[in-house]
Amino acid sequence: MPTQTDSHPATNFREVLQPSPFQTRIDEQCLVQEWMSWNGYKTARVFDTLASEYFAVRSTCSVMDLTPMEKYRITGPDAMAFLNRLVTRDISALKPRRVTYVIWCNDEGKVLDDGTIFHLSEGDYRLCSQHHQLDWLLLSSLGFDVNIEQETHNIAALAVQGPTSCSVLTAAGVTGVERLKPFDIGYSTLNGIDVMVSRTGFTGDLGYEVWADPTKALAVWDAIFAVKEQGLFDIRPIGLGALDMVRIEAGFIMPGDDFNTAETAVRADRDRSPFELGLAWLVSFKKPYFTGKKALLAESKMLTGRRLVRLSVEGNKTPTDAFLYDSKGGSRIGTIKSCVWSPILKMNVSLADVEFVKGKPPENIWAEIYYQKELEWRATWAKCTMSTKPFWSHPRSSITPPNKF
Amino acid sequence: MTKSNSVVIIGGGHNGLICASYLAKAGHSVEVLEARDTVGGGASTAAFAEGYRTSGLAHVLYGLNAKVCKDLKLNIVNPSFTQPVDTISLQRDGDHLTLGRDEVSANSLSAKDLEAYRGFKKEFRGYAKALQPLMMNTPPRLKDMDKKDKLTLAKLGWSLRFGLGTNSMREFLRVGGINIYDVLNEVFDSPALKGAISVDAVLGQHMGPRTPNTVLTYLQRLWGETQTVQSIPIGGMGKVSAMLETTAVEAGVTIRIGAKVAKILVENGRTQGVLLQSGERVDADIVVSNADAKTTFIDLVGAPQLDAMFCHRVNSVRQNGDVAKLHFALNELPAFTGLPTQQLAQRLIIAPDMRYVEHAFNHSKYGEFSENPVLEMTIPSVSDSSLAPAGHHVMSVSATFAPYHLKEDWQQDSRDAFVQRVTETIEQYAPGFSASLVAFQLLTPVDIEDQYNITGGHWHHGELSIDQSFMMRPVHGAAQYQTPIDGLYLCGAAAHPGGGITGVPGHNAAQRILAMGDM
User: If you average pLDDT over residues B349-371, what whole number do you get?
Assistant: First the structure.
């Protein structure tokens, strides 16, 4: 298996998928060899079983390779002004060593992508995004004295998530983890390697992300898993399958899965505004001009025609790709975008695109669910209930310092 | 109109003055801010050497709009004001072609070509005329159309279908998007005649005769013939601007020269006025920019006040000039082989055939100036001796192709070499020309950018290509004279239908502003 060190540019064409700096360890641990592409990187969907990985996040400690996430370094005198013009949220008050969740729109106020802005140190920012954004960032930089560098390949990152994650990192030798509040950034060392640790994640649970130089990636991995060798903690590498389960439970949306990003939408009504995604809280009309402001201001004065909502679905049949109706056999009013049978909640939870009437959600929502029994298709109806809160949340995800284990 | 608004117009070029006059006549309080020390912009008369004056940039008047002249009572077609001119395409053997509105003459031309010229001009003038509803109106939006947009489209459709008739409409639709090279080859035999006509399709553009789109640019030029006669203002193009200035002032417009705008002030998406380079703030309800799109949006409004993709579109407008202006001070009239002296007042061009023009353009594609440039020359001192000392003359030359981005930059060596190319070219047609040279001035597109505040130094503030025309001029999102900033409008060549001394953008912008609810 090729590793980062032997992937010479001249032989890159041989690699259909790019190896991560953690690839040597991932290949060792991935027993089922279930691979997928994440931004062109060879990424595991599952390492051994989905259930054990899911419960690592919710009950013990999970480790996931975050390197493929798109990362951009934004510096220069206008770095803050540039980012504030890019995203819909007012980030002028984002202090150094803090992180915030953001979305950004095109001129028509339709969402291009979501991500996080890390204020690493005064005037030095990192923007992380789901999809490739370099062209949009460069295009948006006209008129700003700003330097934009794609650093996806230059930073190795691991998400260490789960109730024992703080204890695991502390046991591994990272200092100050317990003092980090949600969305804080800290700097420390791990096994003698400089690391940045942020209290961020995509699981809705207690968790951290560890950032390091890719040449030190394996040593970082080994230092964390060394804690497991001591026999005190169970630590499991997880793939994107388990991540998808926990993020739906936590109600986190995935651009491209839960809605068409504006860049990829072809048909006129397939793109979505922040209001249509239920993300109005991320839009600030009080800050200076940002891309899409004019369009969003106009939209904010109109009634929402549709919204991405959290739906719990009765019964034990997972409503994959189900159509939604205003009554059993009634008019179609939407579709399920993402869904999962939540092992911890013992219920079906989903994100769904639902038509609103005069700005109001429908009174009744029914899902028509198709499922197979011994290769025979059947259909059933299940009542759905909208939830304004995430389906799953836990006090441990926000308390500081976290409980020790 | 119940309320009088204060309007600031950025740029006292002819479109700015015309727009100002219309708005003032409608009862608004209008102030024109001009950065230079005279109004007129590219339509000016300026001294380029001690005792020698000539038209600054534009030197041939070919399309000042008839409705604008009527509305503003501009008495342009008047023997004491303008001298009607034909185009004479110079030939080295002295058998020059004289191209009039309907007739062409030269010994070398066959009876077939003479007849074809009549038919061609009539047919193509018909096409140009059919575009009239589009030219004189705000370009209609194709999405979210209002009544006016639908009416404009309906008029255009009617004009193409019933104005032209079935056969002409079919032919118009066939040639509308193609190149002038193919069309002229279909119609004419004489290489000299084809070369001469092709100049009007490419002059001012980054296009050669074989470039698709050159039929459209030719029609835009030809549209001028449906409005007025081609002429040279006696005393230079500054005379036209002076007349427009008088008209504007009589209408109540205040004009300030030497007032360079540094910023268009915007608050909550609405313009508040402008900030001058001097630091003075001029408040206004409405700001109308006669500047090009890049200057207006990127420099004056500033990208941070606008959407990112809109700025990208503005920044991507192709508006690098390809024409240099040369002014020659001469101690005697040039003696063009076989050309009677009384013909020197005409518009003279050097473009012996289409191959010559295409080859001249080839250089420009690769960042070089033409080895054998295409020239358009006027000698305005023939009809106004005050432009030069007694017995002396001035010659005004538009020389193409001279690209804005020259490979080795417009440093002194390149400038000297280009002037030499031009003088040697003229010398081939007028032996002894170089010896009569007293002084000269070269304005490359870079100089035009610096001295006339036109980013890229383009004649039309942007190529007149299909993708930058009509409802896409200068860009989608600012093509109805309105801009994304409330209260900010465009009135210059950057807007539909483009450049040339036509006054149409200024007229259309004023109509649009007056039709808007916020006035």
Answer: 98
Which among B298, B304, B308 has the least Cβ separation from residue A107? B308
Q: Which residues of B touch A288 (CB under 8 A)?
A: 304
* Alpha-carbon span A229 to B295, nearest angstrom: 65
Global ipTM = 0.93
B residues 426-485 lying closer than 8 A (beta carbon) to A: 477, 484
d(CA B206, CA B258): 32
CB pairs under 8 A between A and B: 45
Is residue A194 a part of any domain in this protein? yes
Residue B222 and residue B245 in one domain? no
Query: B74 in a domain, yes or no?
Result: no
Kindly report the CATH number assigned to the domain that includes residue A60.
Answer: 3.30.1360.120
* Domain-embedded: residue A139: yes
CB B401 within 8 A of CB B363: yes
pTM, 2 dp: 0.94
* B309 vs A86, A107, A143: nearest CB: A107
Sheet holding A193-198, edge to edge: A185-190, A193-198, A207-212, A156-161, A61-65, A235-237
Q: Which of chain A's residues have a Cβ under 8 Å away from the Cβ of B303?
A: 142-144
Place of tokens 């030197």: B59
Tens-level pLDDT at each residue, chain A (405 residues): 334 444 455 666 667 899 999 999 999 999 999 999 999 999 999 999 999 999 999 999 999 999 999 999 999 999 999 999 999 999 999 999 999 999 999 999 999 999 999 999 999 999 999 999 999 999 999 999 999 999 999 999 999 999 999 999 999 999 999 999 999 999 999 989 999 999 999 999 999 999 999 999 999 999 999 999 999 899 999 999 999 999 999 999 999 999 999 999 999 889 999 999 999 999 999 999 999 999 999 999 999 899 999 999 999 999 999 999 999 999 999 999 999 999 999 999 999 999 999 999 999 999 999 999 999 999 999 999 999 999 999 999 999 999 999
A interface test, pick of B144, B265, B307 with most A CB neighbours within 10 Å = B307
Q: Mean pLDDT for chain B?
A: 95
Establish if B22 belongs to a structural domain: yes
Q: Which residue of B has its CA nearest to A137?
A: B308
CATH number of A380's domain: 2.40.30.110
Q: Within a domain: residue A256? A: no
The whole-number pLDDT of residue B2 equals 37
Structural domain harbouring A312: 303-387
Q: What pLDDT, on the 0 to 100 scale, is given for residue A1? A: 38
Q: Residues B467-482: what's their mean pLDDT?
A: 92
Q: Among B227, B243, B262, give the residue marking a domain's end.
A: B227
Kindly state the percentage of chain B with pLDDT values over 90: 91
Strands (E), B371-505: 374-378, 393-400, 437-443, 488-490
Looking up residue A121, the CATH number of its domain turns out to be 3.30.70.1400
Q: Are B308 and A289 inside 8 Å of each other by CB?
A: no
Q: Print the domain residue range for B304.
A: 6-43+235-318+454-515
Contacts of B308 in chain A (CB under 8 A): 85-86, 106-107, 136, 139-140, 142, 291
Residues of chain B with Cβ-Cβ distance to A294 below 8 Å are 269, 307, 484
Note whether residue B106 is domain-resident: no
**Is the Cβ of A297 closer than 8 Å to some Cβ of chain B?**
yes
CB atoms inside a 10 Å sphere around CB A325: 20
CA–CA gap between residue B365 and residue B370 (Å, rounded): 10
Q: How far apart are CA A45 and CA B380, in angstroms?
A: 79
**Does B180 lie in the same domain as B150?**
yes
CA–CA min distance A144, chain B (Å) = 8
- Give me the number of domains chain B comprises: 2
Cβ(B30)–Cβ(B17) under 8 Å? no
Q: How many domains, in total, are found in chain A? A: 3
Q: Find chain B residues with C-beta within 8 A of A289's C-beta.
A: 269, 304-306
Is B210 a member of any domain? yes
Residue A346 Cα, gap to closest chain B Cα (Å): 45
| CA B3 remoteness from chain centre | 35
Do A168 and A227 sit in the same domain of this protein?
Answer: yes
Contact assignment for A288 to B308 by CB distance below 8 Å: no
Domain boundary pick from B227, B246, B273: B227
Q: Are residues B291 and B143 in the same domain?
A: no
The helix/strand/coil state of B182 is helix
Length of chain A: 405
